[in-house]
Amino acid sequence: MNLISELSVVATVSAFWLVAMIVPGLDFLLVTRLAVMRGKAAALRATFGVAVGVGIWGLAGFFGVRTLFIAAPWLYMLLKIVGGLYLFLTGFRLFMSSWQKKTAQSGHTELVSGTTRAFRAGLLTNLANPKAPVFVSGLFAAALPQHASVQLGLTCVAAMFVIAMAWFALVATLLSLESVSRIFMSFQKWIDRCAGLAFMALGLRFVTERSPG
Q1: pLDDT, average across residues 8-28
Q2: Residue 138 covered by a domain
Q3: Looking at the domain assignment, is residue 213 inside a domain?
Q4: 159 assigned to some structural domain
Q5: Which of 77, 81, 86, 151 is most exposed, with the fewest beta carbons within 10 Å of its own?
Q6: Count: domains in the chain
Q7: Residue-number span of the structural domain to which 67 is assigned
Q8: What pLDDT digit, counting tens, does each position of 45-70 carry?
């Protein structure tokens, strides 16, 4: 492939991935909540975690994880069950904590611990979604030529990483503004409850689904 063709492939992958990032999902929900409740620093750390997860799934997708799932369906089922349980437990803890009264001291402790754990939360939330490798594999199968070079594949993965970082960093910056967070803080309990229910619902869906699609 010549340079123009490779750039066209990267642009196609980037365009589809940008749309995938903009559509609200669990990553968006996590970064949004952290930006509003914990501030810009925590949200940006979670953003980096999400982007690292994107990079991992991008590499897995390029090197044929879908083929592996077809050859060993139990691996896909294991990923769905483990990921689903993680999401359900995360949502359950979030939902239950929304009913508890928080003192100023406990709020400060939660803020500190939430900031230090934000990267891990972003990474695990992204990796816990078993649909991600299937989507990425499908995207690469459609956009990349049959014998794409490793260099081209890595360039596409790098573009996906940058797009995830840029989009969620923008979300984190805008929603951490005091004027915006002040509004959201007045609905903190309901935001936590809705976020918790969303995580639990998707977690249950992953655990109970049995098709590898």
Answers
A1: 86
A2: yes
A3: no
A4: yes
A5: 151
A6: 1
A7: 3-208
A8: 999 999 999 999 999 888 876 677 67
